[in-house]
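It is worth pausing here to work through a concrete case rather than discussing structure prediction in the abstract. The textbook approach is simple: state the sequence, then state the predicted structure, then interpret. We follow exactly that order.
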Amino acid sequence: MTYCVTHASIIIQCLLNSIISVLEVTPTTSLGQIIPAIYSPLHINVWTSHKSQPTAQTYQTSTAMPKPLTEDDVNSKTDPSVSKQWDDETPKKDQIQDFYKIADSLKVCLLTTIRPGIGPVSRSMAIAKRDGPDFLFLANTHSKKFTDLDNDKTAQVTFQNSSSQDWVSVSGKVTVANNEDPRIKEVYSKGTSAWFGDLGDGVHNGTASDPRMALIEFRANYVAYWKSTVTSVGFLTEVAMASMSGKVATTGVQRQLTEEDLKHAREYTK
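Step two, the predicted structure:
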């Protein structure tokens, strides 16, 4: 939490410095003189100094400030930071396509399994293939992830784009297939061998026929994701404005796909 607050403060300060530069004011200029240039659409009275005499400047808007909520009024239905958390307006078919676009653009994810006595354990994995809302991975049967999956088939796949702030979280169940599964040859690429190595015995050679190579099939049952709708500059501006105005920053849309939605998604791909 401390990191988030500090990070936001740095962003806000950088934006304010840029505003000061654009407005050609000095560092000693009061915030009351800067805000009118930022909030010109708002109907607020701001006192500025002109020849040592305070004068009032009025800025017009057609939107009245809402009455503040009391403590008893704030709940999951009225709290603006969560009451409109999910995008329920975009058609599900479009939401599914946006989910695919984010996942396909990143290609590498974190695959999280449940380890007895520890809990969630994650590792970076390259996607061998996306099949609708589901994912295929190639992995070494000697790795600990297979021991995890022997105990619990529950898993999670997550993506994040550090540039756009897009992220995807997919919950689901996993099944494992050995080297005899023909899909291994379908999704195998030469680069895969770099993660297996050639042991020189003519068998464990990192090819598609290597008995160590197994297929992990991840079947999704729930998806949540965030899609950015602003540029990097727009993100900074939105966060700074929201911090100063008390409003909730709007930098993108958050969506969820239920098990029923994913069932339809698989039908779309047939």
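Step three, interpretation. Residues 1-6, 22-65 have pLDDT under 50 and may be disordered. Strands lie at 45-50, 53-58, 108-115, 119-126, 129-131, 134-140, 154-160, 167-177, 213-228, 252-257.
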